Protein 1
Amino acid sequence: MKMKQADKRNLTMVMDLYELTMANGYFNGGDMESRVAFDVFYRKNPDRGGFAIFAGLEQIVEYIENLHFSDEDIAYLRSLNTFTDAFLEYLKNFTFRGDIYSFPEGTIMYPNEPIMTIVAPLIDAQIVETAILAQVNHQSLVATKTARIVKAAAGKLVSDFGARRAHNMDAAVYGARASYIGGAAGTATVLAGQMFGIPVSGTMAHSWVMYYKDEFEAFKNYAVNYPDNTVLLVDTYDTMQSGVPNAIRVAHEVLEPMGKRLKGIRIDSGDLAYQSIKVRKMLDAAGLNDCKIIVSNSLDEHTISSLNTQKACIDSYGVGERLITGATSDYSDDTLALLGAVYKIAAVEEKGTFIPRIKISGTVEKITNPGLKKVYRIYDQNGKAKADLLAKADEVIEMGGEFRFVDPQMPWRNLKFTNCTAKSLQVKVFENGKRVYELPTLEEIRDYVKKQLSEEIWEEEQRFINPHVHYMDMTPDYYELKMSLLHERGKTAEK
């Protein structure tokens, strides 16, 4: 029987078929207990930006903790006539048995560093690939886009209005979560508010105004129903000639006799800068200095920055499709709306020791960083993040007065960190299949992002255009490890 949308889903089955065919092959070959390490990382910041925000860890944890194959799942897999009966019997009692290390959710991250590392039996590590990447790629993209939009808003509120333009209903809900992590003040998506405790807000649609015989009647009825939160959509017919005058009339004739004030008006079309300036004067002249102006209509960080430059009189922004989809303003091939995180094997255990593995490519960016490793964030004396540092997992990092490092782009330079401190970024989330990490609240994640962007990450890295590049350096020992593997394979990166 085919499943319907409303049926309960087992998210264990959110995987590419090759994960199961490979697992079946490993099982039949007797390799299912071999331990391996996989890294999750991405290669380019979205929007040609200077950073990204790691989001989605809580949902990954939920997925791992509930990983199992139901009788219905096994029956479906058997119907594919692809897997051995012994392998399907094995899946009936499957649970995840590995270790997972991860950046804390909300961590500012950069290309080519392992934001997650999965150390587990081969089958366990293989079958979680798609689900992990789906969460990381989607929520991190939306959180990052939202942070850019919030920065452009320069202290004015940003709300997620994007559900109807999301790629599907799950994307709407988890996108709202990610937008809150990125700094949005709230969402219009009710289920996201219910699930995550995100503040919800909303006004009215043009259909409310169009249903009634005239605009004043529509506004009046709304004010009577919501006298403490009256926000009127004024652009259904004519913003300046009709919408705003009727809103002012409702403020004086309906709300003020009730001892209430008009909370705001919303403009959803036209020249938002020009209209907001004119509307502000009209509202102030009517004694409605406290009435807020809210705007929406295909906004992003660039349009909002432009509105600020034009001295638009706007108090808050409702942002839809370009927030919830992470869409860029430049639709060229290298600026598509994606994060592009990948899942690559980094080491294989042999006789109790993890032996590094490396993927070599003629494209320099696709050469992987091998082996078990740690990521450190290096801070200067003022608490600003200077660079990230890759080290072998067993290295002891002591900054002291001076610490020599290698810039892999220019390895011939003699470089040192001076009077700096180092913080290891990954924490252990799972050990032998059991969670050992207390997940932060959504508010704590949101505050963590805000603190990093305001105190640790350079403003130059937060520019929308041509941001400063955050350096990914290596310890001399780790750099030597990577180069030795390249030499062993008889190849070097092609220029």
Protein 2
Amino acid sequence: MTRVLIVDDDLVQLRLTSEVANRAGFSAVTATSGRQALELLHADPRLGAMVLDLVMPDLDGMAVMEAMRRDGLATPVIVQTGHSSLDTVVTAMRQGAADFFVKPVAPERLIMSLRNALKLGELETMVRTDRSRLSGTMSITDIVTRAPSMDRVLSLSAKAAKSTIPVLIEGETGVGKELIARVIQGSGDRAGKPFVTVNCGAIPANLIESTLFGHRKGAFAGATYDQAGKFLEAHGGTIYLDEVGQLPMETQSKLLRVIQDGEIEPVGADKPVRVNVRIISATNRRLLNLTKAGAFREDLYYRLNVFPLYVPPLRDRMEDLPVLVNHFVARLAAEAGKRIVGISEPALTLLRGYDWPGNIRQLENAVYRAVVLSSAAYLEGADFPQIVALSAGRAEALRLTSTAPGPSAPVHIDEAIASLREVVDKGAVGDRFVAQSGEVAALADVERELIVFALRHYGYRMSRVARALGIGRSTLYRKLREYGLDEGLESDAAA
């Protein structure tokens, strides 16, 4: 629920305005003076909008807006006053007011003004975020979040920004690891300096070394010119190594030397080159597991994991979903040239009921598709057909599971077989237990399939997987090794 600030020294008008806002689905926060309003804005700079009385005894509305501009507070302001004049309107708008009305205001007019101010705020946030991202000056205020679990992430990011300490960001695909890396850079001394991203998993093994460290002309077949490499491009700034766990072993040893000595050695070069680069790494696989399996150098792991950060998945911070949806709607609707105000409550309930395995990236794509499909002012559940289908599929699976025969007491084997046959005939089990030969699949194959399903269902959180399967963690890891599933073990930090 979006919080809006109502500021008025008239207690009766304050109560009436707050009640209108609350009935419209907002959460009204009240202040009776300009100074109190500024205190609340500083305490929570993410308030959605503010209805501000212009005439107050201690600090009037104009002075409040001037202080907001001085302090960098970007909350959209709707000014209200009991006295209307052209000069007042012009002055208020020049101070940055999004709207203006004279008391008393009709409830419908107030609600429309609040909604327009919120949309304007989303658009301004989008522009500001894009601008700061391109300039390398992203800050914590550019992150769209309301979840308490993200407060610790942002707090640690602010502390990491004060030094050049190596940072390792862990989290599932699509949670926003790169944004956190950009915030760390943009909040520190290297703000505005180069920020170079490298997807270590997308570069062929035979090109990764020259891509990172550069090469000299003639160093190998096809090297027809000198190439600086990503580290040299990032000189003075930050290099972001995404999916660092996929680096080949040989490249890992050279990366270790860069961290230790501050030097790179381009392929075919006669001598090393000094670089001044801050390293921020990220992975959706738990490096500790890869280290234990011998797939990642232990000494490099401890060099990169000096300051660890874990970004929780969207399903564990659903408080962010409404604000993220509104943020995406504002940006994507503007890009598509559509007048979409927001999302309906039933559609929002639908999105809240989905697990979002692809996290924020998947949510953004779903909203993008919905904006393209929609021809109304608000997005509805029908605009998210894929989410509806996935949610309905899960519900049907749960229904079949709950209605399948499950005796509460031991039964004779013949009776058990008959019961199982009945389930199969009803389609609750399906044909996944039947091999291509037409015979019943081997027990090991079925067990492997179940483990893979459980891993994906619980996001590779091993404690949860083990509990769901009714086995110990040591047994789970043993079976993973037996079935060749231990190579890509995911983070267990949220288990």
Protein 3
Amino acid sequence: MGESVSTDRYTPQQRTRYRQLLMEDLEIFDRHLQHSDFEDQGSIGLELELNLVDKHMQPALAGHAVLSHLDDEYQSEIGNFNVEMNHPPLSVKGDALRRLEQGITSRLGRVRAAATSENVNVAMIGTLPTITPEFLEDPAWMTQENRYRALSNAVMESRGELVHINIADREQIIHDFTDLAPESTCTSIQLHLQLAPNKFAAAWNASQAIAGVQAALSANSPLFLGRRVWHESRIPVFQQAIDTRTPELVNHGVRPRVWFGERWITSVFDLFEENVRYFSPLIAESRALSGTPMMKGKSPALHYLNLHNGTVWRWNRPIYAPGEERSHLRLENRLLPAGPTPIDITADAAFYYGLVKYLAEENRPVWSRLLFPDAEKNFQSGARSGLFARMTWPTLGQVNVADLVQEHLIPQARIGLERLEVNKDLIDEYLGIITERASSRQNGATWQLRTLNKLEAHGSMPGSDARKAGLAAMLQEYLRNQETGNPVHTWSIGN
């Protein structure tokens, strides 16, 4: 849902017409898949969402101001204390991963310079730990653009009730909101992988199978509204924030719009078809009002299908992009939190691309031996417990995720990266970071929790002045470490 829209509300007539045209787009897409050539370059790319904070480590409503200093590689987000950075596509082979790391570093530097000019700082972190309920209850949190107001209005009208957030682990947060404010706290990395149609299903299935491992390894969101909750609390916060279902619909088994899925697939079409079949349109913007052409070169633009697809938030989402000569498909891996550093992000990317390559080409693929519900349980376990999670894996049964990574998945990711023709020294470097992170059991989440334990007054309660002071001090230390560029497993615990 990255495009501008003309209004923040739609009439029943507009919605009815949109549904009709959405069904037509789905049929066009089916024919296009069957009869057209698609790009098959295997390129990679990345989107990165960032927080803005003031000198007191509180969220800073400076998104539009910061973007005024930047080019079109940077975009707004729903929260006006966020900006998004986009890295252009790369071939994965050779030294591309190093260029990805350097590209992230240089672009992050440009955002920091722009932020400094507005007297704010950049925090690359999954969930900003200093955000308070009071901040999110002030309407000023939202970026004032139609697309964001339209999304919030559509979700709230569909649900018909307040957004209810209820997350518990070591501590608990229960709070109701009048709009999508909690969603704005969830800042992530989205890894992109371009795939030919005949390779898409295997890559998506592989991505689903390892989602729990990714969540555990990269967890960087252990604090929500000042409470110690899941290691990757973005996962439940995001799902609950954009849930259009009432409790009764949940009990009826209606699918959530932030969705893991419910089965392995045989074709990319399965995903688009499910999105149309199970989810009503939220943003009923017509093609004419959007200014989207019917065709882009030789490819159908599929305005209605693409817009709808952007309002179903699968953790591994399919993307269709028309091209002048040939269309392309991308798999968008959406479950990683932002941060902690460019080298950590690149290591996460290397692990993901290498492991997907390996698993997608196995003669007896992992998804043929792993029940889909077990893959989802692994995902929830990884998000909740991070590097202390236990997971179900074929031939191994229940296993500690850190052992699974070190003893089984790292060697497989290495083979995958070798097949992708990545330089050996880079394979060693980036997978070495993943190995050390798993061995030390220190990712962004565990570092934040351990450091907060050191810095906050003993026995401080959520919402207390002591807790708020501890959170601000921890975030300040986090940013100092982040600016060094050193991987998170090497960070010392704050004094």
Protein 4
Amino acid sequence: MSKITSKIGWRFDNTYSKLPDSMLSKISPVPVKAPKIVILNHSLSKQLGLDFSNISKEDLSLIFSGNKLPKGSDAIAQAYAGHQFGQFTMLGDGRAILLGELSTPDQERYDIQLKGSGQTKFSRQGDGRAPIGPIIREYVISESMNAMGIPSTRSLAAISTGEQVFRETLLPGGVLTRIAKSHIRVGTFEYFAAQKNTDHLKTLADYTINRHFPALKEANNSYISLLQTVSDLQIELISKWMGVGFIHGVMNTDNTSIVGETIDYGPCAFMDEYNPGTVFSSIDTHGRYAFGNQPLIAQWNMACFANSLLPLIDENSEKAVKKAQEVINNFPKNMNEAVMGVMCKKIGLDSSENDSQELLKSFLNIMLDNKSDYTLSFRYLSESLQCKKEDLLKAQFQEHDKLYDWLQKWTKTLENKNLNKKDVMNMMDKTNPLFIPRNHLLERIIDAATENNDFSQMKTLLKVFSSPYKEQPKNEAYSKPPQPDEIVKQTFCGT
């Protein structure tokens, strides 16, 4: 496959592709019939040091579809495994190809990957393609997560392929260009641990430390430090998910990023009515990855990571288990502190004080009993401090007496702590988004794209979600929960 030489500014410095052949497969994307640019992320391209201004749309569509490779790329599919809904499976990139690693003008390094780019040796009878709907979903949600300050992979481009993909019915195909700090997963370590290939396991661990956590090379035991660091990053990430009502949907170990980014947006969704048992994924029939289970699943995933690292942590298996177990045993306490830290900020209080946590829990219980909207209840709560939108807050609850009793306790607590209401409101407004990519909005733009090749609604939503914490009077409709006939009960992977 030929490579495009241009003034785009590709600065490839590929290191993963130089690892042992058993860790990857050299392969080129499978060309598509008639690629067209759906959208380019110009702000992200500038961050990456890329310039598309002098490149035709036709050439850009060739690059981001995989029909032509950018100069300096070294295309591979990565090998990994994973516990999928608790069951271990050998996997790998079945519909994604890593073009290489980009170095930015700020000396940052990012993976650039094409998703939906055709079959690889890991496709397991899959077609290696993606419908345009899941491409749109990932593009919008990943960019929204970034705007909310939540670590996430990013979307650089979306392409329509001019081909059909069969998923129960024929759907228009697409390719997503995904940007990530890393595509190394917990499942990547599990791949070699399952093979009992300690040499390759060590190669991968050392590579991960050198590339992503170089400070750990100075630790007494860099591998136990790696476990601790990755665990801390997961705690930070999941606590932020909980704060905005995000449900990943498939928290498999192959979807758990070593660097603590949200990755692999499949049947993900944002919760409307508050309920810890909320599940949207069509394949999560038993609620394993329900909203309220995500902290516990993160611990389970870290236990899988720990188990993979045992041969490196200590040659003595009993000593290795003891060291790793200490990290895992501390995980629930650390996770609870992080979640409480995020959640108490949503009501303007410090989580270190017991009365703050009790107030939070009682508010959540009232929300649960009243089927209150998770996003708007917290957002309107802050507005009520200045006697704004009190009616809108009230509308989220049926049991007004319980709400008023709680509000009295809350405002009294703020007074007792001598907290300035305006300062509290400002903090809450920076914590509680007003605009989230709700399911019914996503379905609306996906239908427009799929049925009418209309991407204008997608672009409108992206503008709205780029400022999720700010008031946008002209776009207020996009903050509202779905009407009864708009409720989306299930989301799908797209594979």
